[in-house]
Amino acid sequence: MYKIIVFILWCCTLSGLAYAQTPTIESVLTQVEQNNKSLKAFADYLNSQKLALRSSNNLEDPQFGAFYLPIADHTDANYTEFQLSQTIEFPTVYGARGNLIDEKVAKLELVYKSKRQEVLAQAKEFCQHLIYLQKQIAIEETRLEQAEKVFEQVKELFAKEQVGIMEMNKAKVAWLQDQFKIQELENELNAVALQLKSLNGDEPIAFTADTYENSLKVSERDSIWQEKLLLDPALLKLEQEQLIAQQTLKLAKNKALPNITAGFNSQGIPGERFSGLYAGISIPLWSNRNKVKAAASEIQYQERFKNAETFQRYTDFEKQYNQYQLMQEKYEAYESTLNSLNSNELLYKAYQSGELSFLDYFAELQFYRKAYDEMLRMQYELHISQTQLLKHQL
């Protein structure tokens, strides 16, 4: 009894390990996000851009200058002077520029998020394509077994001179076509698997699922749109551009304040020197001219552009959502009709009982097979369309 229990537990453990080793779409996306070379390169690029932005708010370098004046008509020692000074912009300028940099960094992060979503959506579509091909292969393998049985039966009938050579040749061709169809699907599956591997930084992924994980049902249109407003980086970027324009205006106003210079100065001859503090201001009478007006105009432009672009994106989203709903209704009607017919089994029984000749059976079978393949294609295209519709959730 003890050995039996141990054996059962061991089998359960192996089963659990096997299941754990079968990646889900979610786990594939996690791997792709970690391994994708484009995302890694883009992350490095964004990091360099962030550092460049941060460096634009550094203080100016200190200045050191010296005079040595030996050429003169005098009997005293030569005159020398040196000065050490530091120029800074008005303190509030650094705060305003720092806030502007923060907004630009946030925009860069949205750019990365958009790129990430594109890569993950592509990876998800590859997974869905693999599922579609696995389903097709499974169906074709069943069809191949059936075609082989029919061919053997027709050969026997031909040997008994109950059917002609045309029917036997057609049965053989049908059998061969099913073999070739499986080979084509397997080649296509391998090609898609290579594309997924490339997206995963050339690291292989053994994705062998043959069923879609998610339902084809989606939330109401308004609910999805509100989600997109909160999560879609393309829409968030419009808002971010507006914030950048507002902060640019604040910076322009602060740059109208004077720059400040402070330092130490020493001059004179040996034995007689004068030393003390140095201070000065630089009044930006001309350098900031029209910059405030330009920044204010940019705010107005960004606001109008955001409204126009958001409206256009909502129009595109509404069209996409409506098309998805129509496709889904068509698919559900198609699926319900085909599943209720049980055509393949009925046709095969009719052929075996002699109600249909092979030629009639073959013609009818092709019609229903084509319809079933079309249903699978519609199912696959629906999942692809859903991925694009809900890409903001990735």
UniProtKB/TrEMBL annotation:
It is found in: Cell outer membrane. The keyword Transmembrane applies. Coiled coil: none annotated. Its main location: membrane. InterPro entries: TolC-like (IPR051906). Residues 1-20 form the signal peptide. GO terms for cellular component: cell outer membrane; efflux pump complex. This is Outer membrane efflux protein. The keyword Transferase does not apply. The lineage of its organism: Bacteria, Pseudomonadati, Bacteroidota, Cytophagia, Cytophagales. One of its GO terms (molecular function) is efflux transmembrane transporter activity. It comes from the Bacteria. Keywords: Cell outer membrane, Membrane, Signal, Transmembrane, Transmembrane beta strand.
